[in-house]
Amino acid sequence: MRDEYQVQLALVGELLSAMAEDVGTAMRHATAGLLGADRAAAESVLADHPTLIARRDQVEARTYELVALQAPVAADLRTLLTAPRVGADLERMGNLARHVARAALRRYPERAVVDQLAGVFASMADTAVRMAGKMRAVVADHDAELAAQLDRDDDELDELHRRMFGIMFAAGWSHGAAAAVDAALLGRYYERYADHAVNAATQVIYLVTGEHAG
Amino acid sequence: MRDEYQVQLALVGELLSAMAEDVGTAMRHATAGLLGADRAAAESVLADHPTLIARRDQVEARTYELVALQAPVAADLRTLLTAPRVGADLERMGNLARHVARAALRRYPERAVVDQLAGVFASMADTAVRMAGKMRAVVADHDAELAAQLDRDDDELDELHRRMFGIMFAAGWSHGAAAAVDAALLGRYYERYADHAVNAATQVIYLVTGEHAG
Fold first, then answer.
1. InterPro entries attached here (chains A, B) (predicted)?
2. B32 within 8 A of B97, measured Cβ to Cβ
3. How many folded domains does chain B comprise?
C-alpha cells in the first residue's frame, strides 16, 4: 500500500513536469505565430491546450485522493497541498500562450506586431521562453539555483516591457491606437506568463525546502 | 480536541469572508480614485492591501495545520484543499484593484480615463463592484443562486469591455496611443477581477455541493 502511495505521489510530480513542458512549447509556438505570422504554429497552441487541462485535472484528482486516502504527513503533505497550486500557475501560463496565439491568428496573414516593436517583442519572447525552460527544470528536478535565476530573468523582462512602452509613447509613434493596444495587451501576456513561471518555481522550491523565499 | 477543530475550520471560512469584503471595498475605492480622481480613495487601496495579504497568509497557515494535525475527511478535507485556492483568487482581485488605484494616482490630479470612455468605464466598474458584493455573499453564506448570477454578470462585463474597444477603434478616437493603452489595460484589470470573482464563487459552490459547475 505504501509503495503504491509513493508511485502515485511520483505521478503527480510527473504530471506537473509534463505541464511545465507543455506551457514552454505553447509559448514558443505562440511566439512563432506572433512574430513569424506562422499560422500552423499558432493553431497548434489551441489544439494542444486540452492536453494541458486534462493533466491539470489529473493533478487535482490524484492530489485529493492521496490526501483523503493516505493522511500523509510533513513533506508529502506539503507536496500535495502545493501541487494543485503549481498546476493552477501552469494552467494560467497555458492560457496566456493561447491569448498570444489568438492575437496572431486574428491578424493573420499580417503580423500582429508592428515592425517598430518587433525587436523588443522578440527579446521579451526569448526571455519568457527561456524562463519557461528553467521553470520546467525546477519543476522536474527541484533545481534551486535555476529558481533563483528566474527572478533575474523576470527583472529583465520587466525592463524590456518598460522599453516597449517607451517606444509606443515616443513622439514618432504613427501606427495608431489599435496597434498600441495590441502591443500593450500582448506585452502584458508575456509579463504575466513570466510572473507565473516565477510563482510556480517559488512554490516548488518551498516544497523542497519548506522555506518561503524572501 | 474535535470542538477546537471545528472552531479552527470556521475561522478559515471567516478569514475568506473578510478577504472577500476587503477586495470589494478595494475595487470600490479604486474606482472612485479612477473615475472621480479621488486621491484619498485610491491611496486607501494601497494602505489596506497588507491586511488582505496577512489574511491570505493566515488562511494558508491554518489550512496546512488543520490538514496536518487532524487528518480530516470528506467535506472538511474538500474545504481545506479549496480554501487556499479561493484565497489565491481573492488575493489576485486585491492586486487588480491595486493596479486600478495606481493608474488613478499616476495621472492625478487628472483623470486617467478620457471623457469619451467615462460612461463605459462607470458601467464596467459598477458591474465589477456588484459582482464583488455577490461573491462576498457566496463566500460567506454559500449562496448558490448568487453564484449562478455571477456568470451572467460576467457576460455583461465582457460585453461592456467589447464596447470599450469599439469606442477606441472607431474613426473618431483623437486621444492618441497612450490614452488607448491606459484604457485597454484598465479594462483588462476589471475583466480579470470579474473572472476571479466567478472563479472564487465556483470553487466555494464546489466546496458545498462537491460538484463542479458546467
1. PhoU, PhoU-like_sf, PhoU_dom
2. no
3. 1
Beta carbons of B178 and A169 less than 8 Å apart: yes
Write out pLDDT tens, residues B8-46: 888 999 999 999 999 999 999 999 999 998 999 999 999
| pLDDT (0 to 100) of residue A43 | 98
B55 exposure class (CB count in 10 Å sphere: 0-12, 13-18, 19+): buried
Question: Residues in chain B whose beta carbon is closer than 8 A to a beta carbon of chain A?
Answer: 63-64, 67-68, 71, 73-74, 77-78, 81, 84-85, 88, 165, 168-169, 173, 175-181, 183-185, 188
- Does residue B214 fall inside a structural domain? no
Hey, is A94 helix, strand or coil? Answer: helix
Residue B116 in any domain: the answer is yes
The answer to whether the beta carbons of residues B62 and B12 sit under 8 Å apart is: yes
The C-alpha of A14 sits at a distance from chain B's nearest C-alpha, in angstroms, of 21
B92 CA to centre of own chain: 7
Residue B128 exposed, middle or buried by CB count within 10 Å (0-12, 13-18, 19+):
buried
Domain that holds residue B53: 2-209
Quote the pLDDT of residue B172: 78
Residue A77 lies in a domain: yes
Q: How buried is B22 (Cβ within 10 angstroms: 0-12 exposed, 13-18 middle, 19+ buried)? A: buried
B86: amino acid identity, one letter: V
How far is the C-alpha of B75 from the C-alpha of A77, rounded, in Å? 18
